[in-house]
Amino acid sequence: MTENSNKADSSLNALKQHGEKIIYAVLVVLAVFFGWQYYQKNYAKIDTAAADAFTSISMRDEQLLQAANNPSLDDAAQKQLADEEAKLLADIDALVAEHGDTVYAWQALMIKARHQTNNDDLAGAVTTLNQAAAIDLDDEGLLAITKIRYARALLANNDIDGALAVANESMPEAFEPSRQELLGDVYLAKNDSENAKKAYLAAWDVLRERQENRAVLALKLQSLGVTVEPIEVPMVVANDPANNNAVATTEASVVEQVSEPADTQTTQSGNP
C-alpha cells in the first residue's frame, strides 16, 4: 500500500468519525443566520413568552451538551443527565404545543431532533423534523435547512427513496451545494456511484464559483476516485460593504448538515 493510499484511508476514517460533527456545525451556523434574518423581518410579531421559554431551553441544551462531553461521568451522573434531557424534551413539547407557529418552536424542534439522533432514535428524529417542516414561517431559508436535515434523517433511518424525494425538492439557490451533496449521499446509499459523483461534482463546481471550500466533500469525491483542486478561499475584510451578501450566499458552508453522526457513516459505507 502506498503512502498516498494510507493518507487517503486515514482521511476517510477521520471523516467517518468527525464528518457529521462538521456537518452539524455548518447547519447550526446557517440556522442561526437565517433565524436572525427571520427575527429582523418579523420582530414586531415576536411572542415574548415563546422567546423566554426558548431561551431557557437553549441554555439547558448547551449545559447538557457540555456535560455529555465529560468522559468521566459515573453511572449516577449519567442517570441525572438522562433525566435532565427527558425534562428538556418535555419542555420542548410544551413550547411547541403552546407556540407551534413560531420560529421558537422551529428552533426547539431542531434541538429535539438532534437529541433524538444522538440517542439513535432515528424514527423519532424523522417525525420531529417533519413536524418542523410543517411550520409555516414564510422563510425559504429556514425551510431549506429543515428539508436537508429531514432528508438526512430519512437516509439514516434507511428510507432512501424518501430522502431522494426531499433532496429533489426546490430550494433557494444559496443551498444548492448542500442539496447536491445530499443527493450524492443518497445516490451513494443506493450504490449508484456515477450519479453520486455527478452530484458531488455539481456541488463542488458551485462552491468553486463562490470560492468556498468544503473538505468533507473533497474527501467524499476522493473516496470515489476523483481528486479535485483545492479551492482558495479569499480573506474577508471586516466592514467591507462588498461582503454584505457573502454570508447569505455562503450557505454558510453550513448546511452540511446539521445532521447526525449516523448520516456520515451511512454515506461513506454506501450502506443505508
What is the helical fraction, as a range of percent?
over 70%
Provide the low-confidence segments as ranges: 244-272
Q: Enumerate how many helices there are, as a single number.
A: 12
- What class, by secondary structure content? mainly alpha
Largest sheet: none
The total strand number stands at 0
Q: Whole-number average pLDDT?
A: 80
Overall structural domain count: 1
Roughly what fraction of the amino acids lie in strands? under 5%
Output the helix-strand order.
HHHHHHHHHHHH
The general outline is globular
CATH architecture: Alpha Horseshoe
The CATH class? Mainly Alpha
Radius of gyration: 19 Å
Give the termini separation. 29 Å
In the CATH scheme, what's the topology name?
Serine Threonine Protein Phosphatase 5, Tetratricopeptide repeat
Summarize, please.
With 272 residues, this protein is mainly α.
Descriptive account of the structure:
This protein is mostly helical and 272 residues long. The chain has a single domain (3-269), classed as Serine Threonine Protein Phosphatase 5, Tetratricopeptide repeat. The protein is 71% helix and 0% strand. It has helices at residues 3-42, 48-68, 75-98, 103-118, 122-133, 140-156, 160-167, 176-189, 193-210, 215-223, 246-249, 261-269. Helix 6 runs parallel beside helix 8. It is globular. Residues 244-272 have low confidence and may be disordered.
